[in-house]
Amino acid sequence: MSALGGRRVWLTGASSGIGAALATELSRRGALLAVTARRREALEALPAPTGLRVEPGDVTDEAAMREIAARLEAEWGGIDLVILNAGTYEPVTPEDFRAEQFRRHFEVNVMGAVNCIQAVLPGMLRSRSGRIAVTSSVTGFAGLPMASAYGGTKAFLNAMCDSLRADLASSGVAVTLIAPGFVRTPLTDKNDFKMPGIIEADDAARLICDGLEDGRAQIGVPAKALWFMKGLAALPGPLRRRYVARIAGRRERDRTRQA
Questions:
Q1: How many domains does the chain have?
Q2: How far is it, in rounded angstroms, from Cα 218 to Cα 234?
Q3: CATH number for 217
Q4: Residues in the chain with pLDDT values less than 70
Q5: Are the C-beta atoms of residues 79 and 123 closer than 8 Å to each other?
Q6: How are beta strands 183-184 and 81-84 bridged, if at all?
Q7: Where in the sequence numbering do the catalytic residues fall?
Q8: What is the spatial distance between Cα 183 and Cα 109, in angstroms, rounded to a whole number?
Q9: Which pTM was predicted?
Q10: Residues 162, 5: Cα–Cα separation, whole Å
Q11: What are the tens digits of pLDDT across the range 101-114?
Q12: Is 244 part of a structural domain of the chain?
């Protein structure tokens, strides 16, 4: 029996990519699962061996997230695990640098997670149990080309989770940071460069569920991608900047060849 079997789980960003794969994997492992995303039809089309509860909504809508959490708590008696996977990514280049790109990233990636944590945390504190899992990215540890908006919001999530974990240390509520590297999804399809070590969404979902079952504070997806980016962040500034410049140079060469 999986450690996730029978656990009451709320998953956001479940309509595609890692989220859709997670919905299937969590259901396969026997979780009592509710899924949220903006598109009801995409949620209803998810393959789920044990079924799932569809709760459509936009994570940027604070009131809607409160309502979903309240319904789940009332009918389930509580939420054991929330996985905050909703996110957006748009490459940012110097030629197309706009405030609106950053605003959208912040509203979805940061405030979307904050809205959901606000909705579930009081109930978890009352029961002195539960786990909050936040999908960040390895780019939150070291900046990469074209990720000034995306990576900035993920760095915010990394710091927020570290602080929240410390604040909740004696509460019975745990915090897990999920840090994917390159995973084949509709978001990474926007990249026009070779993505090293890319893995499939189904493989990412299995790694995440394994980490959640083990109760890990951080889950690298895969682990080597997380440790590589942490190592890159630890390099002296000149070495780190030189390496990132090489990545940018390879991207430009890849674009030239594709053209």
A1: 1
A2: 18
A3: 3.40.50.720
A4: 1, 186-197, 247-259
A5: yes
A6: unpaired
A7: 150
A8: 17
A9: 0.90
A10: 28
A11: 999 999 999 999 99
A12: no
